[in-house]
Amino acid sequence: MSLAARLSRVGERLMTPSARARAEERRREAAAQAAEERRLARIAERRAALLADDPALRAFTADGSSAADLIGRTVDDFTAADASAHNLRLVTDVLEGEGIDYFLVPGRSPLRHVVGVHRRDRKGLLDAMREAYRVSAVYAVKPGPGGVVAVSSAYVDGALDARIKSGLVIRFAEHLLTPDGRCLAGPEYGCDVEFWRDGEAVLAGSDPEEARRRLRVRVPDDALAGALVAPRPNRVADVLPDECRKHATVAVRERHHPTYEPFSHQRSDEVGFPIDAVYTWVDGADPEHAAKRARYREGRSGLASHAANDSRYTDHDELKYSLRSLRMYAPFVRHVYVVTDGQTPSWLDTRAEGVTLVDHRDVFADPGALPVFSSRAIESQLHRIEALSEHFLYLNDDMFVTAPVGAEHFFHPNGIARLAFSPHQIGVGEPILEEAAPNWAGKNARALLQESFGAYIAHKTKHVPTAQLRSVHRELAERYPEELERTARSRFRDPADVAPVTTLYHHYALLTGRGVPGEYRGRYVDIGAEGAGERLTALAEPDEAARYDFLCLNDFDTPPERQEEVGRMVRAFLESRFPFPAPWERAGSSA
Fold first, then answer.
1. Single pTM value for the model
2. Looking at the structure, do residues 443 and 473 belong to the same domain, yes or no?
């Protein structure tokens, strides 16, 4: 022993007991800190080797901190449905490779797939996942209340946290990133593995009465004895008696997975009817269209300053990105119709499936009313699109879906529409020339509906994709022919117009029992307004983006001298937010 060590020992013997305890605590803390530093160094070494070995992986941060503390996989395409299916495959490939039985469970979150595995197979699954993903960007997660991440471990970092391994539900996921490192999907799209147990174990537990009380279905003991029991609620059954465990399959992205027969049906709370989407679109930069618009506007009196301003027709390629957003986040849409004045977007491959251009001449009941430059006029004829589904979404090209939504967000399973009423008001009195055009149309709709139903309407509708019923539009055309024909003949927005797809339709559907108020989390940005750039920058932050499902980038009245600047800003934002070309885009059109 060195002299210094001997002197230290002598010194400790001379210490008081409390001083010796403090010295021992300092030694323990120093040893623990050194061990933690060695552990972190090993993790950093393993992560560096992983990143060097797989160029598709990169380090990133999800919380805005300077340290890149997560690892994700860069992708060259993305849809929310594909992200969920990707994480499902991470798990089922291992289960099938190891011969471990599993079944798909109808989970309570639309974002995630859920797999049921017997509790006795938990160790086998964890061992197999460790072997398969020891050197990977796969994470294991213990879900917390509401599906949030309570504890997370990356396989590349070593042993999983004990709280994860002992859980009755474990989530597995990879983070998926854009080429510039923005996180598109994380554990919220993961695959949850539930560890089910035998009913006998419930009956033999320390408190079988409490275990029974937690079940959402009452099952006699003799039936429970042969059943499988879930560790948490699902959408169909927390208890599966033996006689109900007939094998079936469920397809996820064209791959069939095993399940049990009660879990294979379309449920009564799911929409089962087709839903299309309809856009109106104009390329205001088209010289022929601009000249035609100017020709018909010349000499017109009584137009509001905002009714025919050029910014209303400016195209920043919003339609391209709006369609990308539908593909990314609204997989239930069957087909898209784009209604135009004989124009074709330069980037659109008209031979591709999924999107159909519809000319004004093919939908107007009286083609003699053409040309029109008012969206209200065009909207009055949308129900005449051939082959359009009874239930459809209507979008302006400046509307975007920014988070996963299902058909049930827009319609009840019985077909009733969920209506997008806004807290903003129409105002009272008669239409005023220089007030906002939606106020004109809302006041005119109010007069009609008050006469028909004795109901006084007050609210506008939100700038979000809206749930439309084709039969209601046919009925409106029959009930208010004069007002809708006058609107259809308005070349430019006019104070006498009604708003066929917004104020009039929404309140009529409500008053006739075909619609009820829905919940729509939308963000509206006037791209020409002061501070628009800061608002778009904020929307690029995950916490702010998570507050909304829809975004509207409206060009209310951008002055001509700012349109180029605003156009660059909008395109840069949209290209970052929706970076992947859709199958209907022409090759090279995004360059």
1. 0.90
2. yes
